[in-house]
Structures are given as C-alpha cells and as structure tokens.
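stuck on this:

***
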Amino acid sequence: MAVYSILIQKSDFSLSLLEEGIVVRKYTVAIGQRADGKSRIYEEDLRTPEGVFSVKTTHILDNGLWF
C-alpha cells in the first residue's frame, strides 16, 4: 500500500500531494486572510495554522458528488 502525504507551502500558495515522498500532483490554494507572516494565536484570528496534522479518511466521495 502506497504512503501518501500532503505538503502545503504558504509562501507559494501551493498544496502538493506526495506518494512515497514524490510529488504526484500540485495545486494552487488560498490561505488565511491574515497573511502577515505571524503564527496563529487563537482559532478566530484568520491566520492559517502551521504544524503537522493527520488526515484520516473512512470514505472518499467522488469529485462529481461535491457540486
């Protein structure tokens, strides 16, 4: 089973999907409204959080079902 990870780079507004550490897809993304370079202090401060997070899926929806 392949190991996937997601890397978000705030500096160039990108999200990369990595398979076994190799970039397989790259997307442009938006970040928090307060792009002043300061770390997030509290949940409602409109800054994009930083850190390492886990993504757990139990069911993945087909892209066509989102609209």
The mean pLDDT is 80. The first strand starts at residue 4 and ends at 9. Residues 5 and 52 are 11 Å apart (CA to CA). The chain has one domain: 4-66.
